[in-house]
Fold this protein.
Amino acid sequence: MKILHLSDLHFPTPIPLHQLKGKMIIGYLNYSLRRKKKYPLKIWNSILQSIQTIGPDIIVVSGDITNVSHETEFREAEKILSELPQDKVFYIPGNHDRYTKQAVGENAFYEKYFSNLSGEAIAQNSDYIRVKKIHDLYFVGWDSSFPLSILDAYGRVRPQIVTRTLQILKEKKIRNYVLVCHHPIWNPQHRQETSHHKLLNREEVASLLKEKPPLAFLHGHVHTNWVKFPGKELPYHVINSASSTRIPDSKHESGFHVIEIQKQNLSIQRYTYNSEQSKFTKAPLISYSEKE
Ligand SMILES: [Fe+2]
Ligand SMILES: [Fe+2]
């Protein structure tokens, strides 16, 4: 089973300035001035070419499809992503898709445009647990994001979400699953995040997950790639594929991963965008053990 893991696509969608309000104004200006150039659509077109060559069975996108959660961005993203084989995809939202208060809840734009591709909604009320079986593998999606001030991008997964997920796995007799969440559950020592950016209760989540660990924890949010091998505290691979559509530089080793699962064994190949060849090529894995 071959999984292509993409993240943080942040498609460069123009929004008329008069349609922006509140936090969106500063967010969009900041994005337009500082980041937009780094996300040219040609990289997305190269991803589509890579999909043709690699032939994945499953495509996961671990959040941050938009920049400021404006409906124009969701509509445009849906159009762009419609080129993917829809029965093979699994999406979850990131903090940029939950940017404002209006971007949360049953009538939010993420739900309108992507809910039917994000798996079966298991939890009730505003709790977000999604499960999708693609081929023989189960994917569980969490939403770790909520609207915050312009300076914050931290996340949280309430312990009830973790325990309910474990209960569902038991009820459905699911033995092997891949967990997808936008915020990382682990960072290497030299890439620790501040309390303004990290998954605040990640130790609590990791501890609860010990009862039934996933095969892998796929995430994004930190725009550089890495893979953590299974360890004592987190006995599974933690894979960061952000940002797949960003031009790489010394601080952002961007790209995506292809994960092959055979029985319960994983082999992982990283790809990065090669500007000279205008396409994605195989790149060495950036990997760590849990203590690094
Ligand atoms: Fe992002
Ligand atoms: Fe993010």
Notes: The chain has one domain: 2-288. The first strand starts at residue 2 and ends at 6.
